């Protein structure tokens, strides 16, 4: 359903440092970079699926209340690693790794990036 997602940043270099550390844990790598945008994709994907950008209108980026990007994790250990990497890279904890009540195998962690954008990593396979 989704083609790509964009998140706003007020400091493209700080965002690059954060996402370059956090996203490879889940198999996503920086594919594009400029002074205005950074694109990430899984190895072998033909297009960037997550973009971190300075707003086109040049106004300050802001995060949305109730907005979140959930990223797929292959294993629960990947969720754990995502959470640890995000905190080490300057992110803020919004929910430690663990099972959630959405279904028996919904294992997730929640963080905010340095701009306040909320992210989660989710593994839905049993261990």
Please, could you describe this protein's structure?
The chain has 127 residues and is α/β, with parallel strands linked by helices. It has a single domain (5-56, 68-123), classed as 2,3-Dihydroxybiphenyl 1,2-Dioxygenase, domain 1 (Roll), CATH 3.10.180. It has 2 helices and 8 strands. The protein has helices at 12-22, 76-88, and strands spanning 5-8, 28-33, 37-42, 50-53, 69-72, 92-99, 107-112, 118-123. The strands form 2 sheets. A 4-stranded mixed β-sheet has the order 1-4-3-2, covered by helices on one side. It has a 4-stranded mixed β-sheet with strand order 5-8-7-6, with helices on one face. Strand 3 and strand 4 (50-53) form a beta hairpin. The model has no long low-confidence stretch (mean pLDDT 96). GO terms for molecular function: lyase activity. This is Lactoylglutathione lyase. Keywords: Lyase. InterPro entries: Glyas_Bleomycin-R_OHBP_Dase, Glyas_Fos-R_dOase_dom, VOC_core. Residues 1-124 form the VOC domain.
């Amino acid at each position: 359903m989704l083609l790509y997602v964009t998140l706003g940043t007020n400091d493209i270099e700080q965002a690059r440092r954060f996402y370059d550390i956090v996203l490879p844990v889940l198999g996503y790598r920086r594919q594009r970079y400029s002074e205005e945008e950074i694109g990430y994709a899984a190895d072998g994907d033909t297009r960037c699926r997550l973009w971190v950008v300075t707003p086109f209108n040049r106004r300050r980026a802001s995060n949305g209340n109730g907005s979140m990007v959930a990223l797929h994790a292959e294993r629960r250990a990947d969720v754990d690693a995502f959470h640890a990497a995000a905190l080490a890279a300057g992110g803020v904890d919004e929910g430690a790794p663990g099972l959630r009540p959405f279904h028996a195998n919904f294992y997730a962690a929640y963080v905010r990036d340095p701009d306040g954008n909320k992210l989660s990593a989710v593994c839905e396979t049993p261990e």
